[in-house]
Design a protein that fits this description.
alpha/beta; 14 strands; globular; four-stranded antiparallel beta sheet
């Protein structure tokens, strides 16, 4: 393959409401390579989940491009998009609400196979047993209903369902945020094992930076509908350049109170602005400790300042000698 498996260019998702237009996703461009995990992080309300749903077609984009292996899938009808569903699946945040409470677990996992006409009844049942065992569920559990399982087990059911059609890409929308910490580790390790076995690509949406650090190869930071920084994981943790990224890392709790924080950064004040009326220029300027007049007048472009490291800030600059300055 010569290009990325998934390419998103200028994706916009706006919702018209009685109060005005909600700019949930406001011009996002990303790419995802085969076998790669791209972490997407940011505060609640920044548009992460809406972006994920727009990619798989659960939310219709207002504008922009979504290409799967070079083929445009944004704007396709439901019937046309169904032909590509097998390649692109999703794991949802709520491991209970995403499962049909009236169906037994075996039928939930089998449903994608039935919808797409894969195999006969006997072959589908055999495939369901294999999928259940692979995610850590015993065959006798397949006759139970979702309410009979714990949160971690329900998420394993969701993972098995997402794997049923042998997808190439899985959008993971906060898949461990509703789980206990010990169960989170089990599910994250399972996702990592499955990626190595099957060559899966993940868009891993999360607000938990410690989980993203463990799983992601690259990380994109989103604020109020826009990507403000994108870099390889090691580069981002070694030297975050955007003030918002540094704020997120500074907020990561350190287990030992005697140890220094990951980042020494002034904490920002106030709440994230409403997507109904985002600030002019740089969307982060109303909370940024380094904001100046130009930040209100001009939106900073997302520019590459180091190898694979992109940032949208007026005061991050690459010098002729290759060094990078940041506020």
């Amino acid at each position: 393959m010569s290009g990325p498996l998934l390419s998103i260019a200028g994706l916009i998702v706006h919702f018209n409401t009685s109060q005005g237009t909600v700019r949930a996703v406001d011009g996002v461009s990303l790419s995802l390579n085969k076998g790669e995990t791209l972490g997407l992080v940011g505060e609640s309300g920044c548009g992460k989940s809406t972006l994920g749903k727009a990619i798989v077609g659960l939310v219709k984009p207002t504008a922009g491009s979504v290409q799967l292996d070079g083929m445009e899938i944004a704007g396709l009808s439901r019937g046309e998009l169904r032909r590509h569903r097998a390649r692109l699946q999703m794991i949802f945040q709520d491991p209970y609400a995403s499962l049909n409470p009236r169906l037994r677990v075996g039928k939930i996992i089998e449903e994608p196979l039935s919808v797409h006409g894969v195999g006969n009844a006997r072959e589908r049942r055999a495939a369901v047993v294999q999928l259940a065992e692979r995610v850590g569920l015993r065959p006798e559990m397949l006759t139970r209903h979702p309410h009979e399982f714990s949160g971690g087990q329900r998420q394993r059911i969701g993972i098995a369902r997402a794997l049923a059609l042998n997808p190439e890409i899985i959008i993971c929308d906060e898949p461990v945020s509703a789980l206990d910490v010990s169960v989170q580790a089990q599910v994250v390790n399972l996702l990592g094992d499955l990626q190595r076995e099957r060559g899966l690509s993940y868009l891993f949406i999360s607000h938990d930076l410690s989980v993203v650090q463990h799983l992601a190869h690259r990380v994109a930071v989103m604020y109020l509908g826009k990507i403000v920084e994108q870099a390889p994981r090691k580069s981002l943790w070694a030297r975050p350049l955007h003030p918002y990224t540094r704020t997120l890392l500074a907020a990561v709790p350190v287990p030992d109170p005697d140890q220094p924080k990951l980042i020494d950064q002034p904490m920002v004040e106030g709440e994230i602005p409403s997507p109904l009326n985002p600030p002019s220029g740089c969307h982060f300027r109303t909370r940024c400790p380094f904001a100046q007049a130009i930040c209100a007048e001009q939106e900073p472009a997302l520019k590459e300042v180091a190898d694979g490291h992109f940032v949208a800030c007026h005061f991050v600059e690459r010098k002729p000698d290759g060094t990078v300055t940041a506020p």
